[in-house]
Amino acid sequence: MKRIFFRYRTGYFGEDGADCLEFDDGTTDDELSNEAYNGAIKHASRYGHDLCDCDDDECDAIHEGNHNIEGSWEVYGPKKHDLCDCDDGRKRIK
After folding, report:
1. Rounded mean pLDDT of 23-34?
2. Residue 91 falls within a domain, yes or no?
3. How many domains does the chain have?
4. What sign does the CA torsion over 15, 65, 56, 73 have?
5. Which of 16, 45, 66, 90 is the most exposed place for a label (fewest CB within 10 A)?
6. C-alpha distances out from residue 82 to 10, 71, 86, 90, Å
7. How many angstroms separate the CA atoms of 7 and 30, rounded?
8. Of 53 and 17, more confident
9. Is residue 31 part of a domain?
10. Are the C-beta atoms of 77 and 2 separated by less than 8 Å?
11. Rounded Cα distance, 63 and 52, in Å
């Protein structure tokens, strides 16, 4: 098992989040990137922000989607991440 630290960004000040999850050693980087991306979308929805996947620059006239939702991940390091607040206030095991 490997521990992974996720950061979620909504594009708005004060609404970023973090999570700590465990995955099988065979989990690929692409799978972790997808988990980060989907986690960021889910996190942003808690604040009422929806991801805009339009290619049209004028899509804001149609709806109020957010282009700035991002998720990132890195291997968990106790010295670096132990003091980080995860979304639910504790380390989670998936």
Report:
1. 94
2. no
3. 1
4. positive
5. 90
6. 23, 19, 10, 10
7. 16
8. 17
9. yes
10. no
11. 9
